[in-house]
Amino acid sequence: MNRKYNYWLPILTLVVLAGLQPGGGTAFAQGPGPGQRPPLPPIPLKSDTTHTLSKHFIPASAAKKAPDAKGFIQRWLVLEPVKKDIVRNNIFTDNYLRTTFSTDNFSPDYTTVPKHGQTVNVGNQALKWYALDSKAFNVNLYHFTYALNKPRYGILVWLVTVINSPEEIKNVRLAAGCNSGSMWWLNGQEALLLSGDRDMIADNGTSARLTLKKGRNIIRGAVINGPGMANFCVRFLDEKGAPVKNISISAE
Q: Does the keyword Signal apply (predicted)?
């Protein structure tokens, strides 16, 4: 009995090994059954390694630009990020934001309009201005800083835009959303402060009633963020809560 077992063992081993080889016996290399599809090859992970502004932004032209269909302002002068040591976003109290924005300020004149390509100093950091149109209703500062290969977390970003109104418009409200904290000024006067650790939600905060004067109006903004995404959106709402769209936007 043992001799027979010893005789068949090598043969059985060869049969099993043959079945395990590619193209071996059907018991080990069957194709997909009815209603099944063959396994797909692995899909490589894709990532944006181009570091280009054109993916999410368009250089602002000299022509004036209208708000989008919902009144959002897409044209901004955006300053390269001021690097900040921020490990968490729950530090963004009213007092912290006011102190930080006053200290890390590129100019005490809140009606100044920088030029595209201009370099300014904030502390010991030399930073450049970019005049850009966002392709989305919001301005994604994470995409902006990534495209420039600048810090994406722990940043303060200054913003300026010019609103041109064909007439005086009273009782408007500046409505903004941001991630995480921000502050907004209209024609040199504080209009809105959004403190705390926020997600970017449209119209997350609205100002008191304001007046858009006939002609040029200057918006300045500052957005600050620690870990996570940084982006914002801004528009004006009229006294009935409808978006103000009979204005134009320029970067000068």
A: yes
Tokens of 164: 């041109």
58-250 fold = Jelly Rolls (2.60.120)
- Between CA 156 and CA 198 the distance in angstroms is 15
What are the tens digits of pLDDT across the range 101-136?
Answer: 999 999 999 999 999 999 999 999 999 999 999 999
Residue owning tokens 């926020």: 198
Amino acid at 29: A
> Model-level pTM?
0.80
Question: Using CA atoms, how far apart are residues 200 and 222, in angstroms rounded to an integer?
Answer: 14
Beta carbons of 220 and 83 less than 8 angstroms apart: no
**Contact partners, residue 101, CB within 8 Å, separation at least 6:** 156, 183, 222, 224
Residue type, 30: Q
pLDDT band at 77; cut points 50, 70, 90: very high
Residue type, 194: L
- Please check whether residue 209 is in contact with residue 239, taking contact to mean a CB–CB distance below 8 angstroms: yes
Q: Which amino acid is at 251?
A: A
Distance from C-alpha of 176 to C-alpha of 161, rounded to nearest angstrom: 14
What's the pLDDT at 199? 92
Average pLDDT value for the chain: 87
| Token digits of residue 15 | 């049969």
